[in-house]
Specification:
- One of its GO terms (biological process) is lipid catabolic process.
- InterPro entries: Acyl_Trfase/lysoPLipase, NTE, PNPLA_dom.
- GO terms for molecular function: hydrolase activity.
- Strands 1, 2, 3, 4, 5, 6, 7 and 8 form an eight-stranded mixed β-sheet that branches.
- It is built from eleven helices and eight strands.
- By secondary structure, the protein is α/β, with parallel strands linked by helices.
- α2 links the parallel β1 and β2.
């Protein structure tokens, strides 16, 4: 994997308070995470742990594997909904999730959590027993697939007696998870500053996304309260499926991270 750095290269930095990164869910809005990561990488701010939910787990996996923000941005320009949305006939979702896992395997290889340069936790939910599942071992691609399986749209990942869906159902902004991973300070990026974009839904996908938006706004509450520095990019006007707004999302993430740099340096 050409983008993997050596462990030594990724951790060279002045001694600072261990800083963890919590990446929230929000579908296409997750491109804002890439803009924020651009600033972290350019400023050489060391991150010691990452927890991500849904799209946050996808971006977190790329980041923890050593991918640069340029490579993440390039990848975001290649992916289309048409590439991801393959109809499902299982009766448990409208869209199959194997394609999502295949894309991750293509970009990352069959990397395990133990091989990542930065520790990562992907947050999912087992709907059989209504409990959060913190995925920290085994295949990264498979874990991210589970964390990103929005119920009602993507079919869940069935693993033995577990039926795993998007972690946003219970914890859309996993700041507390990062702290449990050993971070003394937590930087959280919330993609859902507002509970609704105020638009009238036009179809089933709109209804599902907007209903889920209300849910994840509420399940982000504890993460917002648990973070030391909270970034909320100005993207509430952009829909969860609007990949066409990628540049605006990226810029909003970058600007919010640059604005937070003085507070972050003071914290560390």
């Amino acid at each position: 994997m050409k983008f993997l750095r050596t462990l030594g290269e990724s951790l060279i930095a002045p001694r600072t308070k261990p800083l963890g990164l919590a990446l929230g869910g929000g579908a296409a809005r997750g491109i804002a995470h890439i803009g924020a990561i651009k600033v972290l990488q350019e400023e050489d701010i060391p991150i010691t742990a990452v927890a991500g939910t849904s799209i946050g787990s996808i971006i977190g996996a790329f980041y923890c594997a050593g991918m640069s923000w340029e490579e993440m941005w390039e990848l975001s320009q290649e992916i289309t909904w048409g590439e991801l949305l393959r109809p499902s006939f299982s009766g448990m979702g409208l869209v199959k999730t194997e394609r999502m896992e295949a894309i991750l395997l293509d970009r990352l290889g069959d990397i395990t959590f133990q091989e990542l340069l930065i520790p990562l936790t992907a947050v999912a939910v087992d709907i059989v027993n209504a409990s959060p599942v913190l995925l920290q071992s085994g295949s990264v691609a498979r874990a991210v697939r589970a964390s990103s399986s929005v119920p009602g749209i993507f079919e869940p990942l069935c693993e033995g007696e577990q039926v795993l869906v998007d972690g946003g159902v219970v914890d859309n902004l996993p700041a507390r998870v990062v702290r449990e991973m050993g971070a003394e300070a937590v930087l959280a990026i919330d993609l859902n500053r507002e509970s609704s974009d105020g638009r009238l839904p036009k179809n089933l996908i709109d209804v599902t996304f907007q209903t889920f938006a209300v849910l994840i706004w509420n399940t982000s509450r504890l993460g917002r309260e648990s973070s030391d520095i909270l970034l909320q990019p100005d993207i509430a006007h952009i829909g969860y499926h609007e990949l066409s707004c990628a540049r605006e999302l990226f810029t909003a993430g970058e600007e919010s991270m640059r604005a937070a740099l003085p507070a972050l340096r003071g914290l560390l």
